[in-house]
Amino acid sequence: MLSAITNVVQNTGKSVLTGGLDALEFIGKKTMNVLAESDPGFKRTKTLMERTVSLSQMLREAKEKEKQRLAQQLTMERTAHYGMLFDEYQGLSHLEALEILSNESESKVQSFLASLDGEKLELLKNDLISIKDIFAAKELENEESQEEQGLEEKGEEFARMLTELLFELHVAATPDKLNKAMRKAHDWVEEDQTVVSVDVAKESEEETKKKEKEEKPQDPQEDKKEEKRTKTIEEVYMLSIESLAEVTARCIEQLHKVAELILHGQEEEKPAQDQAKVLIKLTTAMCNEVASLSKKFTTSLTTAGSNKKAEVLNPMLSSVLLEGCNSTTYIQDAFQLLLPVLQVSHIQTSCLKAQP
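Structure (tokenized):
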């Protein structure tokens, strides 16, 4: 009889516990739905954070899959895989570091808010929301205008603009690596404006060379110039993907360094709202430049593959345009990761001002 009573008590306890957990889960879901309905930006913010935080993991998985595929092919040739090249230029490392910095800053923001109440809490929340609104406006602008017009500016002009914007941020950062990558990309595209397709029959090439040798002696320097002038469609495609990967990696590296300097090494105080507006200009300039480069790469590809069939040329053109769009997306997502960094910076500045 005692055993029967014990079983009844245990079963009743399990039912109560299960029912309680189900009720909590139901209440939790209803609460999240109410929050989402009352705050139109709630779902948007949640989706954005999920997308940016998992970006480096997504890129790493894509790179590992490509490594496995290449290992099966047993090839020693350098591959035009964006993810692998992006990692070679330390883009993935800087993106992961920026994500960590962003997550740590978000934790600090929430911890500090939890320590306040009353008027102080409301004032700080209003300040943080004003910073968030600037970032949200930038995200909305990106969604409404996915294809931004690229700036037709030379490497020197882009370098000048970046330097001025970094100075305006009041951080001691110089965009040397990014400027170098941009100049290198512009240089080979400009050299390639007179690309001559070399995908012709080998026999006709040899005959032409023989005739030229008979007519006049060849100058070795002229041969070198000719080699520089002519690239195969495969070479142009490889250079295009590699340039996009390098430039994007340098953009992410620059944003990572800016985030660290905002937290630890500002030359002088500047309101976080003003810094957010400058960062919008900075990332917009980066995105425009990448978009401009990808269009120039497709032009070079079209010239180099003028005698190729559409089924050979079109996949390469589509790939370059796709990676160009992906590059701008990575830069925009990295920009969104800077939001908690600016919010922490604002909190630190506010605390210093509050001290007697």
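The chain has two domains: 1-78, 81-192+231-353. Residues 2-38 form the longest helix (37 residues).
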